[in-house]
Write a structure and sequence with these properties.
mainly alpha; single chain; 8 helices; Heme Oxygenase, Chain A; disordered N terminus
């Protein structure tokens, strides 16, 4: 069986098996947060505690580096610019306790690339709420690119078996949990 066909369900499996964690994370920053500068700053700080660590993990992942534009996808510098624009320093990062495993790059990248979809919605809400003056380089990073679709195409081509899929799901779940813990700081 062709590996791309065998893995065509990986995206759906990632989505279904991490939906609860994804929804919980989304609920932490729902609604009025986009109209509140303090909550928006908190959102950026949460990302600043987690994103550099996850991007560093992806940079070490041989498979992830097969994604043609993998370096350009990283958003830590954009996040730093936004925090500087708000007069806030980058916080200390927290170690990511999840152990590397087969499929980890796919799972972590699923979380980071998927967050771009939510970032578009947040940027729109900021603009509509009168906070269109705040720095949004992080939210708008790559919006002119096809990062999400290209990632999905890459994901569909992953060669893997059940262990690979379990590793991808476990790593995505760990990344969502990492964000949830950082949102409580």
């Amino acid at each position: 069986m062709d590996a791309a066909i065998a893995n065509s369900g990986l995206r759906e499996r990632l989505r279904k098996q991490t939906r609860g964690l994804h929804d919980l994370l989304d609920s932490r920053f729902d609604g009025a947060f986009a109209a509140d500068l303090e909550r928006y700053t908190g959102f950026l700080l949460m990302n600043a505690r987690v994103l550099p660590v996850l991007e560093a993990r992806l940079a070490q992942d041989e498979e992830y580096r097969t994604l043609d534009d993998w370096k350009e996808r990283f958003r830590t510098r954009a996040l730093e610019r936004d925090l500087t624009g708000l007069g806030v320093e980058m916080p200390e990062t927290t170690p990511f306790p999840h152990q590397p495993m087969r499929g980890a790059g796919a799972g972590i990248a699923y979380v980071l690339e998927g967050s771009r979809v939510g970032a578009r919605a947040i940027a729109k809400r900021l603009s509509e709420s009168g906070l269109d003056f705040v720095p949004t380089a992080f939210l708008r990073h790559g919006r002119e690119q096809r990062y999400w679709q290209d990632f999905l195409d890459w994901l569909a081509r992953r060669e893997g078996d059940e262990d690979y899929a379990r590793g991808a799901v476990a790593s995505a779940a760990a990344a969502f949990q990492f964000y949830l813990e950082a949102s409580e700081v």
